[in-house]
């Protein structure tokens, strides 16, 4: 069982586990299964044929003796009495494993071979005589621990029936030798199958190695690598090489499409932002001189101004994302006092929200000392944009008058900024996707709050552009905590 288990482990592995749906597993099991059936079928047919040849040779010998004995007795009867001639003829053809005897119609023994004088032979004869029926043609039978070929035919001399001739040939030893040979052949066959299975598994593994390499190459291809990514396979079959070339062509087309898409978004956003900014300026000017407008006109003007401002913000977000994708996102690096920045953002957001914006600062360094001033090197305006977006997101998805907390932690190697709320929370399946572009947890609610699905994507892009990372921890009904981690905290300036 250990050998079979090791073999299955070597057949196909995927991160230490057998994958029953992999091509390697299916090919290996299929070929090994076909080989086992073929070997097994040939072995069974060979065994059966050999056994029949063995039995048939003994049967032919018995049939030959059955035909020969009456003729020998007839020859002896010309010179000696029939009973003496019968005994002599039987003794002439007898052997240690061949039991021959003849009985008269009344059941008395006419003649018997010398081999019948042993105790075991007598037991076999007694067991045969007790059988209710004996075949006229040789047939095999298991009697008293011996495997025998039995035959009984009428015995006629010179046309006169004088009794019945019984022949029992003991083939137990031949049967044992045959079974031993079968066991040896079975063991050899099993070892051959195992060796073949391991050879097949190894060959299939090597044959599929180019596909495995191709899969590993494609796993590390990112959007930024589409233009330069090329699959290079050494010593691969022509089919796999053709597949790699097709995949390279597809990567090139995807790169062109992605570049065209980014340029289109950037161009459209840039072209639309300027006229919309002008329109928004006119709307604001009209709002300031709206004394002669009716209430309905004033309401329509306010809606138009709000929607125009929302579209301008959306276009600005798209421009930022397009610049980041193209590698042209400009960052102005400078030392930033994070504690002061958090208080500044909180004071900016507090008048425009029904929520209380709280700021908590904690320093956890190797010395365990506290500090009110924590500095990092980043882009002040971009980091302010990140915090405002996170606060805006917390306010939108929280009940009024619940607090929104800004926490600042400094550790030995990084700084963590947390924005936490006590809102509705985010379900676990959505937590892995909320940083995707245009992804919305609740479409209806996003429309009502004016969200475009780009806010958190912008946050992630800006944070990663500054060398940091952002994570979320949330529970339904209890709220969410967004954590921004920035590297390399500086000492107090």
From TrEMBL:
GO terms for molecular function: ATP binding. It comes from the Bacteria. Its EC number is 2.7.13.3. Keywords: ATP-binding, Kinase, Membrane, Nucleotide-binding, Phosphoprotein, Transferase, Transmembrane, Transmembrane helix, Two-component regulatory system. Residues 205-259 form the HAMP domain. Its main location: membrane. It is found in: Membrane. PROSITE patterns: HAMP, HIS_KIN. Pfam families: HAMP, HATPase_c, HisKA. The chain crosses the membrane at residues 27-48, 181-204. It catalyses: ATP + protein L-histidine = ADP + protein N-phospho-L-histidine. It is an enzyme of class 2 (transferase). PANTHER family: HISTIDINE KINASE 1, TWO-COMPONENT HISTIDINE KINASE. This is histidine kinase. It comes from Trichocoleus desertorum GB2-A4.
